[in-house]
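User: Please go through the entry that follows and flag anything odd:
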Amino acid sequence: MVSWPLYADQRFNRVVLVEEIKIALPMNESLDRFVNAVEVETRFRELMDSEEGESIRMRAKALKSEAKAALSEGGTYRVALTKLVESWHQRLSRVYPTRSVRLNCTAYLLRLEVSTSSSPNGR
């Protein structure tokens, strides 16, 4: 990844990607904040042909594997999300003690249903 921030929080994002996570190379801008073709070529060659570029690619692959594991069944993301949803469910059940509260949760979708009556099927 090559990082060339243009607006708002992108400068902060560059610091995170380049210095913290170490999965990007920074583009060096001129005083007028433009990047010339020579800089683009230099950075892409560095990314593709240097030890630092290889290190960045390996780090990105490792992070991809970690993200897949976190999203898998029993992964850290799923476990943390389940705990969060369970805490919401407990709180909502206390707020609506006479209603059926149901939270459906998948890795990418959260749906809350609060019935208007006290029976679980809404009747």
The longest strand covers residues 101-105. The mean pLDDT is 82. Residues 11 and 100 are 47 Å apart (CA to CA). The beta strands are 2-3, 25-26, 101-105, 110-114.
